[in-house]
User: Fold these one by one.
Assistant:
Number 1:
Amino acid sequence: MSVARGPRRGIVLSRLPRRGYVIREKYLRRFRTLARQLSDAPLDPDTTFDGLLHMGEDGNEIWVEASLSEPEKRFTIVHELVHARRQRAGEDLDDDLLEEPIVELETIARVGRRTLSRMPSGMTLAVLHDYLTRRGRDDPETPRGLRAVYERIWTLLGMRGRRVEGAVATLAAHRRPAGVRRSRGR
Ligand SMILES: [Zn+2]
């Protein structure tokens, strides 16, 4: 884990907790009902899952939809690890309508251009990646780089000008209890 020095400035953990997670490929789309039962919020019956994050005492697992292409699987795994990073850092928001786009944008910043360009809408994703990372000059694995990425995430989400902690406080974020967390779409 990479820990920011000095006073807390919103981002404490910048590295993804890759080592702590077992990745399993599952046919999640075939088991929608089960996935719905495992998730922690009411869901539309048509919701599909490409990834699920399970953090529990028995271990941490990420389930990824087996029928995805390799670039999409890689993207989905990073997406779930970003959920895990934000939960561990206490950054995750209760409001999924805001939390999901934040996670998605951090994921786009972290996934390499080559993988992004092989995904559906790859060109758009690569352009977003360049914007979020200042063409790779801001490395989201470092506290400083991740803070810079987050400044642009806030800009894209129309929250520019507020400090990260301020935005989080305004939204009255609480940590969720550890457990299964769903991921809608990617
Ligand atoms: Zn998600």
Number 2:
Amino acid sequence: MIVEMVTVGPFQENCYVIGDEESKIGALIDPGDEAARIALTVERLGLAIGSILVTHAHVDHVRAVAPLAEEYLCPVLMHEEAEAMLKMAPQQALMMGMKFGKVPAVDGYIADDEVVEVGPLRLRSLYTPGHAPGHLAFHAEDEGIVFSGDALFAGSVGRVDLPGGSMQVLMQSIIGRLLPLPDETRVLSGHGPETTIGLERISNPFLVGRGAL
Ligand SMILES: [Zn+2]
């Protein structure tokens, strides 16, 4: 599996360009900003982008969705509960002194525990709210990778002080859906460096001692 991280925008958000090595079919996870740089990465990797997957609709994760959906003529997919926040993206951006541009259309919803196919690659959706409404993580089980969005970070967890946030719900999401993944699972999150489930289980100050459910 091809996985390339492109860190974009003022919030240093991690967009992931993923794809199948043989068929060269790919997808974008959270193209948050700097559409041109993401497109350049896609071109260098020689991928045909078939879908855009969104973990949640915070402005730093979706600002480049519309131009890239237009460029690749591909569907934009997210959880149904994330759509209301997406519609608020221009206002979210304005509060941070940024311009948003066009609000992308949502072409399909991904429910919990659904398999999203990227060519022969299979990503299972994990409903993980608490940081934002309708937050999804994407688990590429065969590859041992989880794209954790802003639910889980190396040494931290997502902030819960934005609209729709709840620490109790976030902890339920992490403990119930992410920590059960195998220890060696690579965690590629929406901000910051890569980690593993096992490392977070024993060292993340929010999770230590809470892993056994
Ligand atoms: Zn976020």
